[in-house]
Design goal:
heterodimer, A: 573 residues, mainly alpha, MetI-like fold, two-stranded antiparallel sheet, B: 361 residues, alpha+beta, Rossmann fold, 6-stranded mixed β-sheet, 20 strands, 22% helix
């Protein structure tokens, strides 16, 4: 008790200790100003544009949205999509998490690795793969079905709402999985055994003890999945548009097609922004009530629950899910990359490296896009990592008045869906004083803003593990603050900052929803080129680029795991 | 070797005054313990002295240098102090030798060879010779503690600050390290402030103890003084077990407890004033009914409960007049049973009238 109190007192006292080190103040000030500019300017313009009409303030654009059946239908479709994705993600993610965290399921490590693979797979690549797998006519699975059964119709049609829900779910359930697995890993077995010894059966224990303790994580995982589905652009664009319906993100994108209706796009963006903010608020409240879910700390041991005869059926179930998310899509991408005609069997006459030469040497946009993506990725990750390191250092050591505001601002972009951010940036930077549209700079700003919360979270977690006393100990021995940063803080934070770099880099690599609105012919990135190639029906080239993207992603993930010495999902063993 | 002088320090967190007009003189070469329960402001005081915090009022002087005042605070790195932290705060990425040598980097004009020699010498003093290349994570808690001590002493600080340095050790090691720290203090003679909530630790280690209560110094004195002559209820209760009885001064050396009269140790009490009297359980002797030491206060009572503790017996005795229950610690040689009538015999000198007024918190 006494230690907790003194620690609190010690922390609370940190701000004044900077009194003698005002030299660093301009740096902190600049960083915060930058933060405000990244968000305040675009979002300010977004709001202004949505209510501005002919000089005055009006709600005309909102009324126009309300009176447009097409836009209302898109909003409704988004609600349907998000709700079902949330539900299905919980239905898949929760059992999977329980199986890998608490039972004697064989091959737990493999399942975890596959969930991680699904987590980092760009959803739009999965959507492409599923077009090749389950398109109604040429989809491999449907062809197989017709061959085997002699039926006329397709087995499944991916170009439907349920197809869209399915494809989005298999790349979204990892969010639920992470929440649940981490919570379950913290619940000591003795809590459950305490109930069992009082006479509760296994099912009753699960219902009365385990489930209530996991409930906040379940709801919070549901919300995370809903948020992902709300903000997603790629999968709906690939699956919903051919099916003839819009979601809110594709609708916003469509409003940007010539002639652009920016005001309408701004007005449609607002409900998406508000819904995201609201859901995150609810989630924060849920997780904030740590009291009873605070399964924290060391607690007792966790003994795996024996599955008995269900071990192998359960494993089979897990593998079936992973087949949908990983094996089948990756397989078809690999096949398409090496096949002259992806829908034909992979015989010797059908094998070719032509897709590679086409993609890298013949198709005009690819090389520039790869260079752009790498440049943007490295620049965003490097500047972003420095920025989040500074920000999280400021907030953790409470170096300035208003450090809570800094933390809030660093996290704030998480409520801005990529498409909405792009609309805001488009409006803000196509006019004086900052004309950046058509340059890589606007993409850089978009990526930096969008990836900041992830990088900040990682960096913040890093500094939390470095107690301030380690710095104080050096100060009192004669080292100035800068010396301490160099000798103590930087070496201890290094691997965490490298991880932040990697997370930002991966984020940039797969970014589509903001890029698709902000790109111009000279500033295409890989994801945009993949999207273009789809319009041209170049599936082989899509597969090649997609595999390249996956290769880069997995290389970066490996780097993170090295740096952190643990699983990226953060799931405890 | 300068002393430290704290003059009217105040520091608050929000509405709570963590340190409230605190003054304390530490003489050159003296080891003073800041003793108090959690939340009494002892760690805040130490951090003020270290320069990690700025005072809102008051000043901190070391020798003839004013280090802290509300206007200017000399940063920690220019205070010529060293500090040992509760968590030890050893740098996990540096070896033992690197940890210990770190502070010497900032000693201008110290040759590398001298530096190495001093590190080796200091590691020998704390009995860690041979551990130079280990990392802190590879050491036991006690060894880490010694590294922290070495790192602080090797820079030959003017002032040494210790923040509950033993609280992370297990009981046996803690006792051993108390003597070790005292030995090092006697060897180096550095002016030292030592924060602890453990009264036994404070008594073993320090020259004087400053008992802190709600951000103020309740009493400063040697271990004997604060134990035998507590000035406030807080000090009497915090240092060791005691019986506190409330009464009214009947004469300059007598306190009335209902119909009882209790003569107290030398004190000019103002008749009629309310007085609390502290009596240590050890200072009360049990005698058969009708007897009692000559010149002592003799009170009649009944044993309510007797708990055998091995080398002594802990009694709860209800006084015959009034409903006061006193704790008595008596030798185990003669045993009394619950329900037995006894006489309590107390030397007036052991009845300490707590005269200092405590300001309400």
């Amino acid at each position: 008790m006494s230690r907790v109190l003194t620690a609190d007192v010690a922390r609370a006292g940190v701000p004044r200790r900077l009194a003698g080190v005002d030299r660093a103040l301009p740096v902190w000030a600049a960083v915060i100003l930058l933060l405000v500019f990244l968000m305040a300017l675009p979002l300010g313009w977004l709001v202004w544009m949505s209510v501005g009409a002919g000089g005055g303030v009006s709600l005309d654009h909102y009324l126009a949205v309300l009176h447009s059946p097409a836009l209302m239908k898109a909003l409704w479709n988004t609600v349907v999509l998000a709700f079902w994705v949330g539900l299905m993600s919980v239905a898949i993610g929760a059992p999977l998490a329980w199986l890998t965290a608490r039972t004697d399921l064989p091959g737990k490590g493999l399942i975890r690795a596959l969930v991680l693979a699904s987590f980092v797979t760009p959803p739009f690549l999965g959507a492409f793969a599923w077009v090749m797998l389950a398109g109604p006519n040429a989809g491999v699975l449907n062809v197989l079905w017709r061959d085997v059964t002699g039926a006329d119709g397709p087995l499944v049609n991916i170009f439907t709402m349920s197809g869209l829900v399915f494809v989005v779910t298999i790349y979204t359930f990892p969010y639920v999985y992470i929440m649940i697995a981490n919570t379950l890993a913290l619940i000591a077995s003795d809590l459950e055994e305490a109930a069992a010894i009082l006479g509760a059966g296994r099912f009753t224990v699960a219902r009365t003890v385990t489930l209530p303790m996991v409930a906040p994580a379940l709801v919070s995982g549901f919300i995370l999945a809903v948020l992902q589905a709300l903000a997603l652009f790629g999968s709906p664009a690939i699956l919903a548009l051919p099916a003839g319906f819009h979601t809110i993100t594709t609708q916003i994108w469509a409003l940007f097609q010539y002639p652009p209706k920016v005001e309408m796009a701004a007005a449609v963006s607002m409900p998406l922004l508000l819904a995201t903010a609201l859901l995150l608020l609810v989630q924060k409240r849920l997780l904030g009530r740590r009291g009873y879910a605070a399964v924290g700390g060391k607690g007792g041991q966790r003994r795996p629950i024996p599955l008995g005869a269900w071990r192998y059926p359960a494993l089979l179930g897990c593998l079936a899910v992973m087949a949908c998310a990983i094996f089948l899509p990756y397989g078809i991408l690999a096949k398409a990359a090496f096949a002259r005609a992806w829908a034909q069997p992979l015989t010797w006459s059908n094998v070719t490296l032509g897709n590679f030469t086409f993609t890298f040497f013949e198709y005009g946009a690819t090389r520039a896009a790869i260079v752009n993506t790498l440049e943007l990725g490295v620049a965003t990750a490097t500047i972003g990592a420095v920025l989040v390191a500074l920000l999280s250092y400021i907030t953790n050591r409470r170096l300035i008045v208003g450090h809570q505001l800094v933390a809030f601002l660093a996290f704030a972009p998480i409520v801005i869906p990529g498409v909405v951010l792009a609309v805001a940036l488009f409006i803000a930077y196509t006019r004086p004083p900052f004309v950046l549209y058509g340059t890589l700079a606007i993409l850089f700003i978009a990526y930096l803003t969008k990836e900041m919360p992830v990088g900040y979270a990682q960096s913040d977690a890093t500094f939390r593990t470095i107690p301030p006393e380690l710095e104080d100990a050096g100060r009192i021995l004669g080292a100035g603050r800068l010396c301490i940063l160099r000798d103590v803080t930087a070496p201890l934070a290094r691997s965490g900052i490298i991880a932040a770099w990697c997370f930002i880099f991966i984020g940039v690599l797969r970014e589509l929803s903001a890029s698709i609105i902000l790109f111009t012919p000279t500033t295409k990135v890989m994801s945009v080129v993949i999207f273009d190639l789809k319009e041209e029906g170049q599936f082989g080239a899509i597969a090649v680029l997609g595999l390249a993207m996956l290769g880069l992603t997995f290389a970066t993930v490996t780097l993170v795991q090295r740096a952190l010495g643990r699983d990226v999902l953060g799931v405890r063993e | 070797m300068p002393g430290v002088s704290l003059k009217g320090l105040s520091r608050r967190y929000g509405d709570v005054a963590a340190v409230d007009n605190l003054s304390l003189e530490v003489k050159p070469g003296e080891l003073v313990a800041l003793l108090g329960p959690s939340g009494c402001g002892k760690t805040t005081t130490l951090r003020l002295v270290a320069g990690f915090l700025a005072p809102e009022a008051g000043e901190i002087w070391v020798g003839d240098r004013c280090l802290s005042s509300p206007r200017t605070v000399v940063p920690p790195e220019r205070r010529r102090m060293a500090m040992i932290f509760q968590s030890y705060a050893l740098w996990p990425h540096m070896t033992v030798a690197q940890n210990v040598a770190y502070g010497l980097r900032f000693k201008r004009g110290l040759a590398a060879a001298d530096r190495d020699r001093r590190v080796a010498e200091m590691l020998r003093v704390v009995q860690l010779a041979g551990y130079e290349a280990r990392y802190p994570g590879e050491l036991s808690g006690g060894q880490q503690q010694r590294v922290a001590v070495a790192r602080a002493l090797v820079v030959e600080p003017e002032i040494l600050l210790l923040d509950e340095p033993l609280s992370n050790l297990d009981a046996n090691l803690r006792e051993e390290m108390r003597f070790e720290i005292r030995r090092l203090h006697e060897a180096f003679g550095i002016t030292t402030l030592y924060v602890t909530h453990d009264q036994a630790e404070a008594m073993v280690i320090s020259d004087r103890i400053a008992v802190l209560d709600r951000g103020r110094v309740a009493q400063v004195g040697t271990a004997d003084e604060v134990f035998l002559q507590p000035r406030t209820r807080f000090v009497a209760e915090f240092i060791g077990k005691t019986n506190l009885v409330e009464g009214v001064a009947a004469a300059s050396d007598t306190v009335a407890l209902g119909s009882l009269r209790l003569r107290v140790g030398a004190a000019g009490l103002a008749p009629g004033a309310r007085v609390a009297v502290s009596i240590r359980p050890h200072d009360i002797a049990l005698a058969p009914p009708g007897t009692g030491a000559p010149g002592a206060n003799v009170l009649r009572g009944t044993v309510q409960r007797a708990s055998f503790l091995g080398d002594s017996v802990d009694y709860q005795v209800r006084l015959a007049d009034g409903d006061v229950v006193l704790r008595v610690t008596a030798p185990a040689a003669t045993r009394r049973r619950a329900g037995e009538a006894v006489n309590l015999s107390i030397d007036p000198a052991a009845c300490i009238a707590l005269t200092a007024t405590e300001e309400p918190g």
